[in-house]
Write the structure tokens for this entry.
Amino acid sequence: MTPLYDGGPVARTLIELVLLLWLGTEAWHGVGVVARTIREGRGLGTSGQDRLSGPVLIAGIGLAVGLGIRAAVFVPQAAIREFRPEIFGLGLALTLAGIAFRWYAIARLGRFFNTRVTVVADQVVVESGPYRLVRHPSYTGVLLSATAQPFWSDARLMGALFLASGASTGMAAVSLILAVTGDGTGAGMAKVKQADRYSMIIELVMLAIFLAALGSAARPIVSGHFAPLFWGGLVAVGLVIPLVLDFVGHGRKALATVSAVLVLVGGFILRYVMVMSIQS
């Protein structure tokens, strides 16, 4: 069973328009920040404090969404089978809602909005609009748009699995950058590692549910030619061992670095195994 967008011109056009809108609004926000920074004479790199975590997170979300879309084609057994047009429409509606909510949050934040973790001299705490309810509503909009992807991509669980993997590898990349740049023992690093642990646990759960949903179609992955790479490379090296290292290595920079590298390796193995096992 192929996704709706893979064979229907109307569905394909709708998805392309929504994706263009999503990418276009993010580009608009980014250009606005650069223009305002230059206009105010602050320089593009003078106040950044996120140590490239922003670009890494964006790349991780983009990779997860892109692979999730293609995975719906590579693994038709994981496709949504009931109420397909309705779920497809719901997914697009949630994505649009996320885009609109993020735009509203950025508009309420005004000139204090930035695509990097920065603090300006006259920074104030904004408590109007969506900030009355959520501390980081623009992030909520991004997550709402991204997590709606499995619905409109017609992948019952593959998209969710890839999004969970994208979250864990994104957090691992951020923690690796913090460790390499010398900020691997602070409070920020502890929060990143905590988020990474939760992401890995969610990825393990989603992986188990995904394999159970595939049933006999999962045999090429769990017991076929790619089984050693799947169990040894992804499950053991990419998820279980990093989790153990995170739990026993609190505050140890070396263990945190090794754990982050293993998670990134596991993320690559997941994508390789899922795609190549189906093609073979």
